Amino acid sequence: VLFLCVVCVCFGCSDGRGERKKLEFGLEGKGCVGWTGSSWFPVKIVWIRMGGDSVCMEEQEVKVAFFSAKPYDKVFFERAWAAHVRFSTEVEGLHAPRIGFNYIENRLVYGTAELAQGATVVCCFVNDQVDANVLARLASYGVRLVAMRCAGYNNVDLKAARANSITVVRVPAYSPYAVAEHAVSLFTCLNRKLHKAYNRIRDDNYSLDGLVGRDIHGMTVGVIGTGKIGECFARIMLGFGVHLLAYDIHQNQVLVQLGAEYVDTLPDLLSRSDLVSLHCPLFDSTYHIIDSKAVAIMKKGCIIINTSRGGLIDTEALIDGIKSRHLGGAGIDVYENEAEIFYSDFSCTGIDDEALQILKSYPNVLITSHQGFLTETALATIAEVTLSNIHVVMKGEQCENVVEALKR
User: Fold this and answer.
1) Residues identified as active-site
2) The 243-247 sheet, strands edge to edge
């Protein structure tokens, strides 16, 4: 007898001999499981125990602890879930399984990991601490999946995850255009001093002294990292009519065909570029890829943009480069010590981070609070892919977005 139902996932079933087998069943029905009154919204997971002619089903709840939650996260995840429910019920004619999120404002650190008790899945973001100690604690609570709602996973100890039998998934490409366009915005704002002009006009100062910029057309632009985001950034800059230099361990053939010049060494790119934009991941090999030696090599007046990861730049080296006027400016959407600062409001108390305060004081430094991803398209895709990742893994199927421990 075939039972068609709620996309129910069976992690095992008994064949009467005590042996567990992986099966997937469904049962025909109408409507959806209603929202519960608690902060947890349950996913219906069904065990089907078969013995003789009888069928017995036990419902289990799979819960998701959603750390570093912001109001916009809840809006887009609930919107994506509603769309998933409509597709399941109207198109496929099935009940949709509940993927339930407990939205937690706190960052995930060792001290807050206890908030994941009762959850099978933990959903994390860029500044959550997913190290060996945290993973061991999560595993002790029964967590079996870490769903990163971002592309980067430098904050996850993948070896420790494997040792604790925890699967890690990510969103590899939510909207490369969002981050690339933000990088371009930081650069154009710095180059034409739009932030200074804006503040002057608010003070009824309409003079133009000190607002002289440069034509972007004809500039040499260096792109470090030419993956999806780096490619988008490069294509936008090529539209300005620049000469593009690129540095990556793998050449992007799309950019090669568009006329990008790949260089063999980083110093070659740094010494020739009027603008350097970072789009590489943060690994041990790329940590402080821009240090004091790199800054010294850079062309005088060069502007540096970082929308990738803060640890790519040695903050002290950046400050020295700005202070000495060797660098023409910096636009950073990320900061190596951002974890306890970004995404929080300190307007009433201020912050104690001296390096960040120094950077803020320079008129040719623009800082945004890791908002490069913050577009409607990106947020929608993040929610959709994260939900899909969780659903696929919980069904016991192979997920293409699983992250494995690799040599970096």
Assistant:
1) 309, 338, 370
2) 261-262, 243-247, 220-224, 275-278, 302-306, 327-332, 365-367
